[in-house]
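Instructor's aside before we start: the two examples that follow are unrelated to each other. I chose them only because their records fit on one page, so don't look for a connection. First example below.
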Amino acid sequence: MSRVLRRVRLGISAFLFGATLIGAIAVPVSAGAASKGLFKIGFVCSCTGAYASSLGVSSGAFNAWADYVNAHGGIDGRKVQIFVGDDANNPVTSISEAEKMISQDGVSILTDNSNVDSGWANYARSHKVPVVGLAGDTTAESSNPDFFPIGQT
């Protein structure tokens, strides 16, 4: 796949992710969940390592999305806070990053742009943390009911 095509795909994925995320969280937030305070989102990516040329820009795009959302009032009045965990395409690092975001940072949703997410998929599920995916091509995204890959939600 050409570099230009990868960047176009990433840009489209980031846009679709934002629309999917807003749709996924709008109902719970509007239905009476804590309407003020931070909306914490974890972003696990293989941003360095073997896939750096394709995925390295994704965390910047995600942070730009959060800045835009926050500049326009947040989501239902709640500011978005992003936690980025780069697993460098390493399964052990990926597990550690996802577990830290869930147990220490208190994220209420994870986003997945990792190629080694199967190690932490059940951990997220056991803590009732849904996962909205960008990669769309891993086993966890196609088999775990708490994963919502773009194009399949």
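Example two begins here.
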Amino acid sequence: MRLSSKMRGFTLIELTIYIALSSFVILSSGQMLKSILDYQEDLQQRNVWVENSSRALKDIGFVVREGTGFEILNGGAGLKVILSEGEVVYSLASGRLQKQVGAETPYFVTGSDSTLSTLGFEDVGGGVVKAAIAFESGVYSEEGFFFPRNQE
């Protein structure tokens, strides 16, 4: 069958260029989508770290403020807060902040969804304790300074 001069299709070169450009756009879109999803996952993990560090520092701050004094334990790896009705001890256990009130069974303050790599306490003088925590080998860290109420 002969094609009339009015009937035209795409040339092989035009089809090849179209396929190449379409492939480039599709691959670029896929890479952008992957980058966005990776960023969202990183952001969700950071939110978990922020939530856990906030919970931990808030708990430590509240107990220290209610206390009458404190003692740094194990070279800064733990903190004992002396209260009028007993004591509270904070330490790092299984990658989580552990709290023990008096003789009660210890429990975790931070969630199991993230791992604390560092927990440190320091007496900075003047009755002030510094608490520092870091997640995942320092990728995210936070610190707070607290003092017992009787030090105000």
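The chain has a mean pLDDT of 88.
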